[in-house]
DNA sequence: GCTCGTCAAGAGCAGTGCTCTCTTTTATTT
DNA sequence: AAATAAAAGAGAGCACTGCTCTTGACGAGC
């Protein structure tokens, strides 16, 4: 009884996975707007309406791809961090930066789906946020551990964060635990700086100007490290 | 002869402008992928094929909107800079930052078109780049003037840019004139940091975490100013 | 053995960008 | 003023999209 039911559910899970895989391949070549349910169905030898047995709408398929994307990026970041020495906080930060950029360059359309313009009419469901912060959690752990190891000695040039920032800092501390407001503020600047750079590079803003990008990126991220107070 | 010819060309120019205007309104409400030539034609009381007399393709209409967008943002940035004291370089930087963010918040879909995921299959023609650097030119002027006024005293924590950066720095100096490589590098970090923040805010990455955004943004941009070496 | 839920298939709806042809309007030339 | 050339609008049509609804087949549980 349950064995046959699982047999059915197993083929269902298998097909669901295959649809997502083909969709991901299409996403990689055509981009988000080029993702077509009918094309996926065609490639599977299915009729288009059959897809709807597995994904109630195109947006649901997109959601799956987004969650998978966040997880893939998060895993890449986790692996990069794990391959470094725990006490080498600067190395960990740089490893995270390069992991984000490398993954983005390898999966430009997926990156665009995660960090580019939101798909119009598409409202990200709550399921995505858990996966979305996976890389941020790694980043937060590095900052937090560096701070508590006394390895964060920021240059004394930045103004203190405004009082109005306290509330947001408390919320951020649910991810990056136990660091003072000013470190939260600096962490935010570095984090947005990382993704700002990657987005500029990927979305064509550097075209014709910044061409030798590997060393420029590395130096920019070292600059952020210096601003964070990480030792160089 | 020429007066009648201009009569025809005048109504043509008028219609072209009206199409672009309606398209911009649609873009503002529906987003880039929701921009439909047929809908524009419908709103104009035209038949869809007639639009093609004015814009050979949807991409051409998009190009027009993109150029207009860059110009609108560039003008906003220029005005913000012009409203400050020329010697107050920090104030000018902050004015530019807020102008970019304010414009982006007021025109989220247009900002997404300019700085978000590139539209798939769409190749930005050369016409766009002239308009695209308009805000960067203002920024570059501020940095350059601050440097030559001796107002740039960066904290001595950042590593010097790598030798491989020299070539790109030369290219950047065509926009930001006469500043040394390390200032170019810092300027790049701040510039990407600004747009990284705005993109995060606009594309939903701050949702549920950073809510009191005005003061947080202002502080973040002051931090970039400090890193640039601008006096606070 | 019969019923019932699951699934694939197909037709169809409303929409899209774009092209082609045909007709009407406008401007120029003879 | 009439004839000609150029430009623009109208409409049909192609191939495509997401999505819905109905029909028919198959396998599991009573």
Topology, please?
The structure is a homodimer of 232-residue chains.
Chain A: H1 2-30, H2 37-44, H3 48-51, H4 58-82, H5 89-106, H6 108-115, H7 127-132, H8 134-148, H9 166-172, H10 181-202, H11 213-228
The structure holds a DNA duplex (30 and 30 nucleotides).
DNA-binding region (chains A, B): 36-55
InterPro entries (chains A, B): Homeodomain-like_sf, HTH-type_TetR-like_transc_reg, HTH_TetR, MT1864/Rv1816-like_C, Tet_transcr_reg_TetR-rel_C_sf
Domain HTH tetR-type (chains A, B): 13-73
Describe the protein.
2 copies of one chain form a homodimer. Chain A has 11 helices and no strands. Chain A is mainly alpha-helical. Chain A folds into 2 domains: 1-56, Arc Repressor Mutant, subunit A; 58-228, Tetracycline Repressor, domain 2. In chain A, α1 crosses α2, α5 runs antiparallel to α11 and α10 packs antiparallel against α11. The mean pLDDT of chain A is 92. Chain B binds a DNA duplex (30 and 30 nucleotides) through α1, α2 and α3. Chains A, B: Keywords: DNA-binding, Transcription, Transcription regulation.
Keywords summarizing the entry:
homodimer; 232 residues; mainly alpha; Arc Repressor Mutant, subunit A; Tetracycline Repressor, domain 2; 2 domains; 11 helices; 68% helix; elongated; DNA-binding
- Fill in the CATH topology of the largest domain in chain A: Tetracycline Repressor, domain 2
The number of helices of chain A is: 11
Please tell me the total number of domains of chain A. 2
Which structural class should the secondary elements of chain A be placed in?
Answer: mainly alpha
pLDDT below 50 for ≥5 consecutive residues: which ranges of chain A?
Answer: none
> Greatest contact pair?
A-B, 62 and 63 residues
In one word, what is the shape of chain A? elongated
User: Largest sheet of chain A, described in full?
Assistant: none
CATH architecture of the largest domain in chain A: Orthogonal Bundle
CATH class group of the largest domain in chain A: Mainly Alpha
Strand runs of chain A, count:
0
CATH homologous superfamily grouping of the largest domain in chain A: Tetracycline Repressor, domain 2
Taking all residues together, what is the mean pLDDT of chain A?
A: 92
| End-to-end gap of chain A | 63 Å
- The SSE order of chain A reads HHHHHHHHHHH
Identify the quaternary structure here.
Answer: homodimer
**C-alpha Rg of chain A (nearest Å):** 21 Å
């Amino acid at each position: 009884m349950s064995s046959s039911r699982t047999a059915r559910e197993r083929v269902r899970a298998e097909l669901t996975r295959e649809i997502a895989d083909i969709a991901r391949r299409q996403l990689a070549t055509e981009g988000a707007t080029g993702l077509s349910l009918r094309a996926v169905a065609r490639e599977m030898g299915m009729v288009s309406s059959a897809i709807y047995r597995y994904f109630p709408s195109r947006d649901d398929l997109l959601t799956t791809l987004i969650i998978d994307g966040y997880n893939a990026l998060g895993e890449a970041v986790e692996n990069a961090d794990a391959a470094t020495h725990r006490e080498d906080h600067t190395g960990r930060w740089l490893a995270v930066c390069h992991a984000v950029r490398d993954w983005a360059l390898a999966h430009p359309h997926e990156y665009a789906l995660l960090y580019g313009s939101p798909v119009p009419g598409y409202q990200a469901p709550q399921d995505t946020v858990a996966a979305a912060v996976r890389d941020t959690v790694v980043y937060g752990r590095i900052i937090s551990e560096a701070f508590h190891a006394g390895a964060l000695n920021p240059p004394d040039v930045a103004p203190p964060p405004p009082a109005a920032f306290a509330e947001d800092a408390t919320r951020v501390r649910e991810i990056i635990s136990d660091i003072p407001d000013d470190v939260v503020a600096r962490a935010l600047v570095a984090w947005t700086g990382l993704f700002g750079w990657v987005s500029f590079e990927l979305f064509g803003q550097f075209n014709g100007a910044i061409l030798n990008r590997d060393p420029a990126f590395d130096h920019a991220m070292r600059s952020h490290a210096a601003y964070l107070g990480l030792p160089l």
